[in-house]
Input
Amino acid sequence: MTDASRIEPRTISVRVNGTEHTATVEPRILLSDFLRHDLDLTGTHVGCEHGVCGACTVLLDGVPVRSCLLLAIQAEGHEVRTVESLASEDENGELVLHPLQEAFREAHGLQCGFCTPGFLLTLLPFLDENPNPTEKEIRQAISGNLCRCTGYQHIVDAVRLAAQHRGTNGARQAEETEAGEPPGRETRA
Amino acid sequence: MKPPPFDYVVPGSLDEALDLLGDHGTEAKLLAGGQSLIPLLSFRLAQPALLIDLNRLDDLAYVRAGTDAPSAADDGVLRIGAMTRQRALERDPAIARVAPLLAEALPWIAHPQIRNRGTVGGSLAHADPAAELPALAVALDARFHLTGRRGVRQVTADDFYTGLFATALAADEILTEIEIPAAAPGTGWAFLEQARRPGDYAQVGLAVRLTLDPSRACRNVRLVFLSVGDRPMVASRAAAALEGEPPSESLFAEAAEIATGEIDPTDDIHASAEFKRHLARVLAGRALTRAAQRAADGESPS
Output
């Protein structure tokens, strides 16, 4: 094995949930660990750490990817979006769930919640591309995310509910998704 | 489950990547999509001193499809850059037209999040015998461009796979392009796979391609299995039994039986070798029937 002390850490700049972060990392640090340990964004959950469970799914330049199968250093210059970006603050400073999160709550799409961040970030761009998905399309979309509590039925229900809600006030929610960035976090060195 | 220490470099050009690879040789490992390599690092099954990240080589990500009417300027060959994401290939509008076998098979590769990142060349060069793309490349008579500092050489997919995770790539070469020749008119195709759950590694999978000539006889039959040997397994005796024969259920059953003698499945936790042979026989019969039907219906060629 290579002697770790001989590997130069690198400084990277990554935009996460709308905020530019500059940090120094070893090349071997996984993006999932970088998000959790360096940026304290612990909403991204780490399950299997080898690309099977989907719990660590985040958006890289808007596309769902497994953050345990990417090195943090590879995110240099890219834009990452995590579950922390979904809820937004209303005019009174209260945190308001994203409509997709609201649909999960309403349809009982989660029990323990460990897998939920991965499901949400998989589904966010899916619903943008498929505003009115069939059950088969939904099940294909979530095939790469494991849930041990719900048996998936309630998750499918939640996606349908979210799609329905989008259908009735789609324009408003599309706007919210755009504007739904969290308040900026302090950049850590 | 964390990767061991390694050094990391991101070349900005293919030449730079080749120089780095030439200088570091087997100490270095190329990082494409990382969907197999990163888990191997995390499990510490791979411990390279240096990762050469190819993800900034944007000019290796492209899909160039021939047109329906090949001309002097257009040989009808489908050319895929090695760094093309599997999802990009799956979504390329030309694929269904020029390579419907690929279009049918790509959704079987793992899950959407994996295909968003995984590359065509990465999977082909990784040479996992359970992966779909190597078997597809062999079934489609693909040619691989292997680029080194001294130039490019071409190798057929058939010759590329030399054993378990072993290929004809030299230590200082990079797979840069995949060429898939245009199919003859009257070609049918089918891809079938059996897994415990969709997206899991296949217990058995296979790609079939065959052409019906004007007299409705089978020509140029290719049956290539995945997950039942150390590399994509070509059932050439089964194919030979079909050559020049008119398609029929009984003939296909006979060929499927022959094919089960040309694969080399092993017992694993998901299925016994015996069960895999059974699956191979059933899937081969179905795939041949489907491919012949498509050839007869004159759907677009693969």
